[in-house]
Amino acid sequence: MNRRQFLHTSSAAALAASATASMTPVLQGAEGAAAPAPAGKPRFQFSVKWGMIDAPGLSVTDKFKLLKELGYDGVEMDSQFAVPAAEIKAAQDATGIPAQGVVNANHWSIRLSDPTAEIRAKALEELLAGIRYTHEIGASTLLLVPGAVRDAANENKEQVWERSIAGIRQAIPLAAELGVRIGIENVWNKFLYQHGDGAPGDQKPDEFIRYVDEINSTWVGIYFDLSNHRKYSYGPDWIRAFGTRIIKCDTKDYRLAKDAVDGKKEGFCDIGEGSVDWAGTRKALADINYYGWISSEVGGGGRERLADNLARMKKYLLG
What we know:
Elements: H1 3-21, E1 44-49, H2 60-70, E2 74-77, H3 85-95, E3 99-103, H4 117-136, E4 141-144, H5 157-178, E5 181-185, H6 206-215, E6 220-225, H7 235-242, E7 246-251, E8 253-255, E9 267-269, H8 278-287, E10 292-296, H9 303-318
Parallel strand pairs: 1-2, 1-10, 2-3, 3-4, 4-5, 5-6, 6-7, 7-10
Antiparallel strand pairs: 8-9
Helix pairs in contact: 2-3, 4-5, 7-8
C-alpha cells in the first residue's frame, strides 16, 4: 500500500465516522458541552481557494510549496477542469499539502435547476465528473451550488427544489462508491432564503435544513459560508441550527450598511473588516463540535497577501 492509498483508506474511515456522527443528536445551543480539541491537535485546518494564489510563473508544485511555507494546511481547487489531476497529485507528493476539496465547475451557468432538460443532463455530467476528479486527487468534498431562482415561470423556488434534488440523488451512488461528500453551499442564488435590499435581516435556516434533510443522505451535507448571509441573518444561529449537517466551511467577511463608515462600503470584505461576529462564530462552531477545514474565499494575491489572509483567519477563527 503506497502513501496515497493509505491516505485514501484513512479518509474513507474518517468519512464513515462522520456519517455516523451525522445521525446523532445535534447540539442546538450553548448549553451543550463542546468537545475540546485533542491535546496538540488544532480544531481547524486552514485552506485557500486555488484561484487566490496569484503568483505568475510558479508551477503547480511551486504554488503548493508556497502554501506550505506560509503555514496553510491545504488548498481547495476551483474546478475539476482547471488543473490536471496528475499535476495535483505530484504537487501533493512533493509537499505533503493536500488538495482538500473541489468546487464544482460551471454550476452557476450549467445548472441542475435549468428549465432545459439537456442542460440539466449536462449539469449532472459535470457533477459526476467533479466527483471522479475529487476522488482522483484524494480530496473529500465537492462544493455544489444546486441551482438558482431565475424567473417565476420557468425556474422558480419549487422547480429549483425539485430539479436539483432529482439531479443530486442521481449522483449519490457514485459519491458513496468513491467516498466523496457533496457540500451544498449557502450562496446568493435566491434559493432557500429571501433576497434583496428589502429582505429581513433576521432570516431563519429552516428552509435550508428541510432541503438537505429531504435529500436524506449522509453523502450530502452543508458547506457553510460563514459570511454569505450576514446581510440577511446572524451566522451563529444558523451554525447551531445546521449542527452536524455542516461538513466544511468557507470564510470571508461582510460589512453591513450600518458599519460602512469612514469611506468603507457595504459588501464583502477581508476577514475582520466587516460585521461578522467572530467571537459568536467561534462559540457556535465549538457548540456543534465542528472540527475540520475552513477555506478562505477573498481577493487573492502573492506571498504577502496570502500571509496576511492566513494571519486574519487565525486571529478571528482561533481567537
